[in-house]
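Retro notes, item 3 of 5
We never archived the inputs for the iron/sulfur cluster complex last cycle. Fixing that now. Sequence and ligand:
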Amino acid sequence: MTETALAAAKKEKKSGQMIKFSINGKAVEVEAGQNILRGAEKAGIYIPTLCYHPDLEAFGGCRLCIVEVKGMRGYPTACTTPAAEGMEVKTDTDRLRQLRRSILEMILTEHPHVCLICSERNNCKQAHECTRRAGITTACGFCPKNGQCGIQAVAERLELKDVTLPFSYKNLPIDRSTPFFDRDDNLCILCGRCVRACKKGVIKFMQRGSQAIVDTAPGTSHVEAECEFCGACVDHCPTGSLVERKRRWDGKIETQAKTICPFCSVGCELTAGVSAGGGSASGGKQGRVIETLTNENGCLLGRFCATLLNDSSRRITAPMMRRSGKLVVVPWEDAIAHAAKAIKKSKGKTALVYSASCTNEDMFALRQFASKVLETAMISCPGSSTQKPVWRRT
Ligand code: SF4
Ligand code: SF4
Ligand code: SF4
Ligand code: FES
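Structure as it came back at the time:
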């Protein structure tokens, strides 16, 4: 495969047309226009990546996904090179392994990496503390992504044992200016995933060379830059640089479940992440919802706010009754018996007020309850706390 033929392959993007080529001698087929990496994924062949994400346009920044292509000079990146008919690709030669390790080492000259090479790291996991007392800024336990990190996954596959190049800690302050997430530039590898994930163009690469960081325009806060707080930048960051503040130390997600956002009656779908426990601050959090992700068409309110609502100390989670002027938690049986007695006494003289956040199903059930149990026609939904209730006849 010559480079001229490859250039022709880049133009050849007829949809549905299939391209046949080989990776490590294995026959692979992808749609015209798809890259070598896609072919490797389909064939179950591992190629390390950091700046690539399947949701985002390829960027070719980290160069970890370099491969060898017969007839091509140098080492093209699998994420940006489209597959071409008859191409012969190698992904796992000694030279590639050596080059990828050198590339990773270079990335790590400005990235704390105790968590990747420390001989005690597995013992520390069990002890839940750094047994070698590594510095507070570099010990793996002090990174919220420890155990769920893109760099750790790549370093393990590349069997990185040591970093021979000198390390320089950037020592930049953590940006806590947004309401929901923190940005630690000391852990940023400038992979640009967050920049590409932000559809609003709120964050960009700023400054150059060793000073380069990802940030909003100078002097502009996220709110001023019209950040929607959709969380896409946080969700696509492979390192501990962009992390949701509330779940920073809650550890790994064990399971995910589909649920409904509790904020309004539209009822957008949310994916709730349930804690596996084991985070440094997880305490009794095992089995609790520590993250909520919105889907592409859902409203964004639930992304960061649903867990705040779920864990709010003001949330009523048990029945309460007023006793001697004070609200006290009581068993369900007592609360139900009391309510039943009160309803019986006031049948036909009761009004029912429901929240504007109720779903259609909730409202249907409440209407049934109002007409059949309370025997009242007075049912209301206040539009907002400042509006007077709008009464409707059932
Ligand atoms: S981002 Fe990953 S590699 Fe870097 S310190 Fe955190 S866990 Fe370790
Ligand atoms: S939260 Fe969403 S809109 Fe705001 S910077 Fe991140 S990706 Fe962009
Ligand atoms: S903040 Fe994260 S996603 Fe953005 S460039 Fe840095 S490491 Fe990559
Ligand atoms: S993953 Fe291909 S260059 Fe980074």
